[in-house]
């Protein structure tokens, strides 16, 4: 007797009509036609069943604060940072927790069950850290939350930032963060990378840095990060987030840089929605959109994971916690239109992001955690095209969110009475692979 049995599922790797049995919170069997009973059964009817979505880059302490203390009129990164600086002294532990928990509710409804959140450590009160640690504990039964100690105002630029970051780590924050391009000089930026990687090595922690989030092609801190990763033996434990300056770099330099990133085993985390919103703000036309070189990084074997970054905060007034929206945008901006490309983008919001976070028990194989999402789509390509409805979200074998299939009733003479957008894909793929 299993706890949950999902029948007739399509899997992201192309397997079809698979049954998935879950017992004691883990996948106990995964094969065609499991002859067994369960306390609860779901017929997926040929729909896609995926491991949960993972967001490897977010700011949970700032989420849902849009309009506080005022709107970002210029829409720029720097005004967003300035606005957050104005709001920071007004932050209370209670308000931070309330907004973060509300966002986690939204995330669960979207099948997003793991988040890495950067937490600003620039305020010596560390109220953001206290609040997010409590949130991490409260959501643990249904969502994996990792916290990054993030010196938003600069590790060297802001007085007391070094001490505050180390106190945050002492309190139990999981990851060492940084923002080298926001230091006063390139030299101080490089020095901050070195210092923060040393802290991580001494404490046995991962690193995740906002790196080169700028249109300046001379912002090359990712090169320093790659070198420091190797020097401190941090291979596989370091992420470079954003990397937007690579959009503006010349091809010769990038031909040197990408192999360095691959050699160091650095995870690359672009954030398509906010990267294309904030970058290129000083351009007229042609206008750069700032997203890093996703296809080239993937081709070099770099683990590319896509982040949402922000939802309704001083930097980004939009967002819905939907990682399929993130992937959908990446496909367009990176011009990744082939079948294989879209499959890779789906992996970037699931398995690649799980790898970047070092999640244990993640996946769709026997013995993995019973964490699944049933989508109103037949395959990953259709899920990305439609930003598919989540029919059921499952955590350790328990359904924690569900919704009815999305359809529209038509009142047109001689035409069908119901339209389901998921029925419109051709029976054989017409796209080139």
Automatic annotation (TrEMBL):
SUPFAM superfamilies named among the record's database cross-references: Composite domain of metallo-dependent hydrolases, Metallo-dependent hydrolases
Ranges for domain Amidohydrolase: 40-400
InterPro entries xref list: Amidohydro_3, Metal-dep_hydrolase_composite, Metal_Hydrolase, Metallo-hydrolase_Enzymes
Pfam families registered for this protein in UniProt: Amidohydro_3 (PF07969)
Protein name: Amidohydrolase family protein
Taxon lineage: Bacteria, Pseudomonadati, Pseudomonadota, Alphaproteobacteria, Hyphomicrobiales
């Amino acid at each position: 007797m299993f706890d949950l049995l999902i029948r007739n599922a399509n899997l992201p790797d192309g397997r079809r009509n698979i049954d998935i049995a879950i017992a004691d919170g883990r996948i106990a069997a995964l094969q065609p036609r499991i002859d067994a009973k369960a306390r609860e059964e779901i017929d997926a009817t040929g729909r896609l069943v995926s491991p949960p979505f993972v967001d490897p880059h977010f700011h949970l302490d700032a989420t849902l604060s849009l309009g506080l203390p005022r709107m970002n009129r210029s829409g720029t990164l720097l005004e967003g940072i300035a606005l957050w600086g104005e709001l920071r002294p007004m932050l209370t532990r209670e308000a931070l927790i309330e907004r973060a928990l509300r966002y986690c509710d939204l995330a669960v409804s979207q099948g997003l069950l793991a988040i890495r959140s950067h937490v600003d450590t620039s305020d010596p009160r560390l109220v953001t850290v206290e609040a997010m640690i409590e949130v991490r504990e409260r959501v643990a039964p249904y969502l994996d939350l990792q916290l990054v100690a993030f010196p938003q105002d600069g590790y060297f630029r802001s007085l007391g930032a070094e001490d505050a970051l180390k106190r945050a780590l002492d309190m139990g924050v999981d990851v060492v963060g940084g923002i080298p391009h926001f230091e006063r000089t390139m030299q101080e930026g490089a020095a901050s990378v070195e210092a923060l990687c040393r802290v991580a090595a001494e404490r046995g922690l991962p690193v995740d840095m906002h790196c080169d989030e700028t249109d300046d092609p001379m912002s090359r801190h990712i090169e320093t990060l790659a070198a420091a990763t190797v020097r401190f033996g941090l291979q596989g434990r370091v992420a470079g987030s954003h990397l937007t300056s690579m959009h503006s770099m010349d091809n010769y330099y990038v031909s040197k840089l990408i192999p360095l990133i691959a050699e160091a085993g650095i995870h690359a985390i672009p954030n398509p929605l906010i990267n294309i919103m904030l970058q290129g703000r000083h351009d007229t036309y042609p206008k750069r959109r700032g997203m890093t070189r996703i296809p080239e990084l993937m081709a070099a074997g770099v683990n590319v994971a896509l982040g949402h970054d922000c939802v309704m905060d001083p930097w980004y007034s939009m967002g819905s916690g939907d990682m399929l929206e993130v992937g959908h945008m990446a496909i367009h901006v990176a011009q990744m239109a082939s079948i294989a490309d879209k499959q890779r983008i789906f992996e970037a919001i699931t398995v690649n992001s799980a790898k970047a976070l070092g999640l244990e028990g993640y996946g769709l194989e026997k013995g993995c955690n019973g964490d699944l999402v049933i989508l109103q789509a037949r395959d990953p390509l259709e899920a990305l095209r439609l930003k598919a409805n989540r029919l059921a979200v499952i955590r350790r074998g328990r359904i924690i969110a569900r919704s009815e299939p999305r359809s529209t009733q038509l009142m047109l003479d001689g035409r069908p009475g119901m339209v389901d957008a998921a029925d419109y894909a051709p029976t054989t793929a017409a796209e080139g692979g």
